[in-house]
Design a protein that fits this description.
The structure is a single chain. By secondary structure, this protein is mainly α. Strands 1-2 form a two-stranded antiparallel sheet.
Length: 513
């Protein structure tokens, strides 16, 4: 009777999801409008920044608390009842990390054409997921990737190697997300980077600590809505201002032509639109391939397809994932192009003594540097250093948009970083608590002990990740790329061959991983 009641209540909740998230989206838009009116009436920028951060993180915390559970299936795989479209949104948020939201347009800004390898590789990876992995892993029906490896290849050796690989790839990835949180909080809340990292850590934990995958799923759907609105609003603004047409994805070709003309004026030899200025053809293709197979093997993404009600829904949700990811990836090249055009036209050639306030504020964070090398008091392109991680976050201020738009972009970046960090930390904690502790060390552990172990390990791993992120070891996009290499080398051959080739042996899989 209790199970029947739970099932009915779960079905009722799922049927109400479109209405719930529709009201949530409308409420968020009203919230932005109210803050915009407040800015016009004199609301300080610092108050706007804090309001965005506290309101959005508070919302995620509320969803995390409401979604708390002591049911193992709910904690590990959200009860296997997430509809395809919402699993697609959650996967999109899980995937749309700080690397995608903050780093991708920045990478395209720096690399130009060559940066498209990241878009091709990351998007192409989902084709491999749909064809080779998601439906088959869902059909297998367990909780984690090491579960599959242990069952397919037998014994604990494959499981242990899978645990180590999952932790290594996920930890590398999560450090970059926490660093992104530190950048956003330190700039928009005007606090030290290290403090911002640990403040962001609290935001990450409230989403996943009590409810596991159930809480993470419904939080990620909410986070996707915020991050996609935050990404598109300033882009549409720039497109309308520069071209008169509010469709940046179709209009940025005209901006690229203007950039090419400006490069001639500025004396830039290597044009932004020319291919293979950074990578040669073979490196471009190799990077694309590595990112494709890495995408298809990331354990925190593959875990999402365990949450659907059926194999068909798992396959459908990959299609929805691609759609929701497409909305941002189709826009990232336009974001980079418009940002470069604005820098060339509104920043380069300015009087250094009269540079706007954003230069000083972003210099304080360490992402912008200005040096008057020739002493003429006029900013030359070579005298301006814009870190790739600053492009998306700083562009609203560079263009001179209302500060509420800058706060919105910061909230979107925070949503992207938090959503991915939640999924990654859950992957690490589950690998330790479920695959190592329960499957190998103590198979007789009670449900409560397993949940307590998972939560304690989640907290420990999160603190370690925050500490490593506070050391600022590299830029976000580069750091994330390491995780793809690890996942590609460790998991992709063993998973695909394990699914499609009966003769794949345990020894070969273990040595390969």
């Amino acid at each position: 009777m209790a199970n029947g009641t739970t099932t009915r209540s779960g079905s009722d909740f799922v049927s109400k999801l479109p209405k719930i998230y529709g009201m949530y989206t409308g409420g968020f838009i009203v919230f932005i409008i109210v803050l915009a009116i407040g800015e016009q009436l004199g609301l300080p920028n610092r108050v706007i920044g804090w309001t965005f951060m506290l309101a959005t993180v508070g919302l995620y915390a509320a969803i995390g608390i409401i979604s708390r559970t002591t049911d193992l299936a709910e904690y590990y795989v959200a009860g296997r009842r997430v509809p395809a479209i919402f699993n697609g949104m959650a996967t999109g948020a899980d995937w749309m990390s700080a690397a995608s939201f903050i780093g991708l347009a920045g990478g395209l800004y720096v690399r130009g054409y060559d940066g498209l390898a990241f878009i091709m590789g990351w998007t192409g990876g989902y084709v491999l997921v749909a064809l080779f992995l998601a439906p088959y892993l869902r059909k297998f029906g367990e909780f984690t990737i090491p579960d599959f490896l242990g069952a397919r290849y037998g014994g604990n050796v494959a499981r242990i190697i899978g645990i180590v690989a999952a932790i290594t790839a996920s930890f590398t990835y999560v450090v970059a997300q926490v660093a992104g949180v530190g950048i956003i909080t330190s700039r928009f809340l005007d606090i030290p980077f290290g403090v911002g990292v640990f403040l962001g850590l609290a935001g990450i934990l409230v989403c996943s600590f009590l409810g596991g995958m159930r809480a993470v799923t419904w939080t990620q759907v909410a986070q996707y809505i915020i991050l996609i609105i935050a990404y598109l609003v300033p882009l549409v603004w720039m497109s309308t201002t520069v071209t008169g047409v509010p469709i940046p994805q179709l209009m940025y070709g005209t901006v690229l032509q203007k950039i090419t003309a400006l490069e001639g004026t500025l004396g830039i030899a290597k044009h932004y639109v020319e291919p293979f200025n950074v990578f040669n053809l073979w490196n471009f293709m190799a990077l694309t391939f590595c990112l494709m197979v890495g995408t298809a093997a990331l354990p925190h993404i593959l875990m999402r397809y365990y949450t659907t009600p059926s194999v068909k829904e798992a396959r459908d949700s990959v299609g929805w994932s691609l759609f929701f990811i497409f909305l941002l990836y189709f826009s990232a090249p336009a974001y980079a192009a418009f940002a470069k055009y604005e820098v060339y036209t509104h920043v380069v050639g300015s009087q250094i003594a009269q540079l706007p306030n954003w230069v000083q504020l972003w210099s304080h964070v360490g992402l912008v540097k200005v040096a008057d090398a020739n002493g003429d008091g006029i900013l030359q392109l070579s005298e301006l250093t814009l870190h790739p991680d600053a492009i998306v976050l700083a562009t609203p201020e560079i263009v001179g948009m209302p500060y509420v738009i800058a706060g919105l972009v910061a909230a979107g970046g925070l949503a992207a970083a938090l959503s991915t960090a939640d999924g990654l930390l859950l992957t690490i904690a589950n690998a330790l608590s479920h695959d190592l502790y329960y499957k190998i060390i103590d198979p007789q552990a009670s449900t409560m002990r397993r949940l307590v172990t998972a939560r304690v390990l989640l907290l420990v791993v999160a603190v370690i990740a925050a500490y490593v992120a506070s050391l600022r070891l590299g830029n976000i996009l580069a750091f994330v790329s390491y995780a793809f290499s690890i996942a590609a080398a460790s998991f992709f051959p063993a998973l695909v061959l394990g699914i499609f080739w009966k003769r794949a042996t345990t020894t070969a899989a273990n040595l390969g991983m």
